[in-house]
Predict the structure.
Amino acid sequence: MSQDRPKRSDRRRTLVTPEGIALPLVLASRGTRFGALLIDLVIILVLMTVVTIAAIYSGIGLLELVGKEFDKTEGSLKYSLEFLVILYIAVMFLFRHAYFLFFELGPRGATPGKRATGIRVAARHGGRLTTEMVLARNLLRDVEIVLPLVALITAASEGGIYSWVSLLWFGVFALFPFFNRDRLRAGDLVAGTWVVEAPKSKLEVALSTTESAASGTSTATGASYKFGEEELAIYGEYELQTLERVLREDRHEAMVAVHEAICRKIGWNPGTGDERAFLEAYYTQLRARLESGMRMGQRKADKHA
Amino acid sequence: MAVFSLSKEATAEAAIEAAALRSDRFRQDREADWKRLEAIVTRMEKGRLRRIADEDVLALPVLYRTVASSLSVARETSLDAATLSYLESLVQRAWFLVYGPRTTLWSWLGRFFGGEWSRAVRSIWKEMGVALVLMIAGTVIGWQLVLIDPDWYYALVPTDPADPRVPGASAEALKGVMFGNQGQDGLSMFAAYLFSHNAGVAILCFALGFAFGIPPLLLLIHNTAMLGALLWLHDDKGLLIDIIGWLSIHGTTELLAILLSGAAGLHVGRSMAFPGERGVLEAAAAAGQRAAVVMAGVILMLVCAGMLEGLGRQLIDDTTQRLVVGYSILAFWLAYFFLFRRVPVASDAE
C-alpha cells in the first residue's frame, strides 16, 4: 500500500470544471493503456478475420449458385461479386480507421478495450471533448503502431544501418508516453487529450449512523463507549481516515490491532470481543469532534498537527 | 461491512435523529438526488439514450450542479471519506456527460460542410503553398532526371513487367493504356481499392507531418517526381496533353487531397516547432484539431477521386472531356474552400 502510493500520486491531476470545482483525476498508467490497446487490436483482428471468412464463403456460395441453377444470371453474378468486394474493402477500411473513432465518440469516451481496463479519453484542459479531438488523436495511430512494427521487423530480419535508424526514429513515436509526465502518446499531444482512469462510484454505508456508532453503545455487550475531550484530541483527519478504512475492510486482526493501539494511547484497558463497537463509537465521536472543529475553521490534519 | 438488518435499522432511526452527525444529516437529506443522478448517468453511459425519459435528460445538468455543490459543501463540512470519494467520482462521471462530445453525426456533418471544413483549409494556406511548391518542384525534378538519363525512369516509377509504359515504348502502346477501357470488368472494385489505398497514404502523410514536417515533404517530392517521369515519357511521343487529361480527371482531386494532407501534417509540425506565444502543448493541440478537420475532408475527397479514377476515367474516353471534368471539379473545390466563407454557428464553441 505504502509502496504504490507515491506511484499513484505521481499520476494524480486536478481538473477544474467550468463551475470552478476541482476534481481529482488519475491518469491511466502506461501498462493499462497498453493492455487496452492489445484488447482492441485483438478485437479488430478477430472482426477482420470473421468478415474475411464470411466474404470468402459468400463468394464461393455465389459461384456455386451459378454453376447449379442460375446459368443465365451470369451478369447479375458479376455485379453481386463486385458489390461483395466493394463492401469488403469498405468494411475493412472502417475496421482499421473508424473503430477507435466510433467508440471514443460515444458517451463513455472509451473503446471496448479501454472500458474493460477502466479508462477513458478526456480533454486535457477540462473543457468539452470534441469530435475534432477524437479525430486528431486517432489519425496518428499509423505512426505509433504500424510503422514502428514494420521498422522493427525490417531491422530484425534485414539489419543494416538504414533500418536501424528508421527503427530508432519510429521508436520515438511508439514510446512517446514514456517521454512525458502526462503519459501522452503522440496522438494525445496533437489532439489536446489525455487518458484517465474512469471514475467508479458506489455509495458506501455511512459508518457513523449504525446504532452502536450513533449511540456509543455496543449492541452485543451493552457496553457504553463515551470518550472525553482529551481522549479524542490526540488524533487528526489522517487517523480518522485510516480508522474508516479499517472499519470498511472489516478484517478482524486489523481491528484488534487498531483497537489495542487506540486503547494504549488513551490509557484504556483493552478488552476483547467487542472491538468493532468500540471502534465505531470512537470513529463517530472523533469525526463529530473534528467536524465541529472544521465548522469553526480549525482543521487537524493528523496526530502531529 | 457494517450491514445491519432492516429491523435494527428501523430501531436505529430514533438514535440517528438524535445523535447522528450534522454531516450525516446533510448526506441523508441529499442522498435521493445523488442516487437519481447516479442512475441517469449509469443509463446514459450504457448508451441507451433513447430509453431515458426526457425529464431525466433535462434533469441531468441541474442534478449535476446540485451534486457538484453538495461536493463543495461536503468538502468543507464532512470527514466521511467514502461519501467524499463517491461524490467526487459521481460529479466527474456527470461532468464527462454534461461536457462530453454531445453532437450527433448529422449536426457535426452539418457544421463540417457548412463552413468548418473550408475554414480549416483556409487556415493552413501557408502550408498549402509550401506543399504546392514542393509538388511542382518534385514534378520538375522527375522530368529533368529522366530527360538527362532515361534510366532514372525505373528508379522513380515502380514498373511491373506487364506495364507497357517504359522508356522507348511506342505511342500506340501508351495510348492503349489511356484509352479504350470502357468495357472493362470490375471498375467499381478498382475504385474502392484505389480509395482505400489512397486514404491510407493520406493518413500516413498527415501522421508523418507530426515528425516536424520533414518526412511528408520527402513523400510529396517522391510522389510527384514519379509524376514528372510519367509526363516526360508521354511528351516524348507527343502525348503530353493526353496523359494530362488521363491524370487530371481524378488527379486534380487526388493531388489536391494529398496536398492538403501534407499541408495539414506540416501545419502540426510547424506549430510545434514554432509555437509562438502559447506553450508547445497548446499550440500542438490547436493545430492538431484544425488539421483533423482538414483530414476528415481529405478522406471524403479521396472517395470522390477513387470513383473518378475507377469509373469516370474508364467511361469517359476523350481527352477534352477528361480535362473538362477534372478541372471543373478542381474549380469547385477551390471555390468551396476559398470563396465559401460562411462562419459556422458557434453553438458548440462553449
In short: Confidence is low (pLDDT under 50) at residues 1-6 of chain A. Strands of chain A lie at 12-16, 22-26, 119-123, 193-197. Chain A touches chain B through 84 residues (CB under 8 Å).
